[in-house]
Design brief:
Layout: H1 3-30, H2 50-59, H3 72-85, H4 87-92, E1 94-98, E2 102-107, E3 117-122, E4 145-146, E5 149-151, H5 159-174, E6 183-188, H6 199-208, E7 215-224, E8 235-242, E9 244-253, H7 268-281, H8 290-299, H9 307-312, H10 314-325, H11 329-335, E10 338-346, E11 356-365, H12 371-382, E12 387-392, H13 409-421, E13 426-432, E14 448-456, E15 470-472, H14 473-491
Parallel strand pairs: 3-6, 3-7, 7-14, 8-13
Antiparallel strand pairs: 1-2, 2-6, 4-5, 5-15, 7-8, 9-11, 9-12, 10-11
Helix pairs in contact: 2-5, 5-14, 13-14
């Protein structure tokens, strides 16, 4: 065969391969059907402005979590406030305190054959650094009602959930509504410091009582605008799983220190720095699977061209997607286990070479990995006998949560309610990057979801744990409407 004919044949083959790939892409795109359910929105129930005063008032109660102490006065004041302002809840629901400050309510249903549901929230909030107070538009514990917002710690994380749920139940009790299914509420007091005395203790009691829940709903993701490129509507993101958590301590140790005027070729600080650099240069592999693949399956068909084609053909575009998603902190965290050096310690004096240097590195672990696989990966990447790697704070490590189904009663009822209360949105499952109290309840339910029914823009999410935490008044009222309808949908 001469060269001219060979070139012609190669071109023909490449042309047919191109046509084949193009044909597959077109077919995949055409068959990439919407997973959105057709639900008619409902008329919004009327909610008075007294709910705004309630949220403002509880923000003023500084139920702040600290590792070393607890302000018992604030937590007791919070309990007293709920009793005084949610009179029907206090008088008609069973109530129990766990470890003094966490609260469990039980609203008995008529049909005891139905598994109960469990709604979660947490009473505590993170501290605010004194140095940042001047940067707040309104003081962080003022509960200011201004410019259409309620301002302060807890308006997003997480007094909004507790108050929203209680306001919804108070309305239902006023309507003399009685649920078919029993409803439990569990409000932990120490979620921000791992939840050992709150959620974990409550879950242990539930397990001892032999309770299993049809579904559990906790805080987590939100209804977010501009969630992904190519989407024209906000997306209610329902967390079907959350990442695991571990912190590893790296220690580089040498037999000798010495004078800084005669430094050796390698120092403890240098060895440790090199180990950290190796980790940062060798991130965990990116994966588009589990909840993230489901996120794209639910949102991809709703995207404009060409983004819908990209997500319909991940068999071809996966590498491009990983590269693109790796470029932003928020999306990079969705597709891999993340590596975050958070604490470095070494040295006592500027002219003395230390014999030891330590670092703490926090990892948020993607599904299908584990605390053990993270430890092994780090040891293999560093590959230096002089650097010891151990698990830090072993009482607070957790593997990624199980992935809850999108076909369960729980997911479907949350999805349906979101469409009813928030018209003209999409709903999609996703992965929660942070840790929530829900991880403590995996022994009492197979269906655990994480969704805070609050509408936010992408840039506003930094207010959670950040400066100028706030919630729009109408968004808060809509969250109450969501819980009100969710309870009716779950318990009829």
């Amino acid at each position: 065969m001469n060269k001219k004919r060979l070139r012609w044949l190669i071109r023909r083959i490449l042309f047919f391969v191109f046509l084949l790939i193009l044909g597959i892409m077109v077919f995949k795109t055409i068959s990439f059907k919407s997973k959105q359910v057709s639900i008619t929105s409902i008329e919004a129930i009327s909610i008075g402005d007294n709910v705004i005063s309630h949220l403002s008032d509880v923000v003023k109660i500084t139920t702040t979590s600290y590792e070393e102490k607890i302000d018992t006065t604030a937590f007791l004041a919070f309990q007293k406030y709920l009793d005084s302002n949610f009179v029907l809840v206090d008088s008609l629901l069973e109530k129990e305190f766990v470890n003094d400050f966490s609260i469990v309510y039980k609203w008995s249903g008529k049909n005891t054959r139905l598994d109960p549901i469990l709604l979660l929230g947490h009473i505590d909030v993170v501290p605010v650094e004194k140095e940042s107070w001047s940067a707040w538009t309104h003081p962080p514990y003022s509960g200011a009602i201004s410019d259409g917002f309620v301002w302060g710690r807890g308006t997003l994380d997480d007094k909004v959930s507790i108050l929203g749920i209680l306001e919804a139940i108070e309305i239902l009790l006023e309507e003399e509504y009685q649920p078919e299914r029993t409803v439990y509420l569990a409000f932990g007091h120490d979620e921000e410091i791992r939840g050992f005395n709150g959620a974990q203790a409550i879950a242990r009691i539930f397990k001892q009582q032999g309770l299993t829940f049809e579904y559990v709903l906790d805080e987590g993701m939100v209804l977010i605008e501009d969630a992904l490129p190519g989407l024209t509507k906000p997306v209610a993101l329902i967390g079907t799983a959350e990442k695991g958590y571990t912190t590893l301590k790296l220690t580089a140790q040498l037999q000798h220190g010495g004078h800084s005027s005669m430094p050796p070729a390698e120092t403890a600080i240098g060895i440790l720095s090199n180990a950290i650099l190796k980790l940062q240069n060798n991130p965990f592999p990116a994966k588009i699977d589990g909840p993230i693949k489901m996120l794209f399956d639910y949102t991809g068909p709703e995207m404009n061209f060409p983004m819908n084609t990209v997500f319909a053909n991940t068999w071809l575009t996966e590498g491009l997607l990983k590269w693109q998603l790796s470029g932003k902190n928020t999306t990079n965290a969705l597709i891999r286990t993340t590596i975050a050096p958070t604490i470095l310690r070494s040295g006592l004096k500027d002219n003395v070479l230390p014999t030891e240097a330590t670092a703490k590195i926090n990892f948020r672990i993607a599904p299908n990995e584990s605390t053990q696989s993270v430890l092994e990966y780090v040891q293999n990447v560093i590959d230096d006998e002089r650097v010891r790697v151990v698990s830090e704070n072993k009482e607070f490590i957790s593997d990624p949560s199980p992935i809850s189904s999108t076909n369960s009663f729980g997911y479907r009822v949350i999805e349906k309610t979101a469409h009813e209360v928030f018209p003209d949105i999409y709903v999609a499952p996703t992965l929660v990057l942070a840790a929530t109290d829900s991880r403590h309840y995996i022994d009492v339910s197979k269906n655990i979801y994480r969704f805070l029914p609050v509408r936010m823009k992408q840039q506003e999410t930094k207010r959670i744990h950040g400066i100028d935490e706030r919630i729009a008044i109408e968004d808060y009222k809509n969250s109450i409407r969501f819980y009100h309808q969710l309870l009716k949908n779950s318990c009829k």
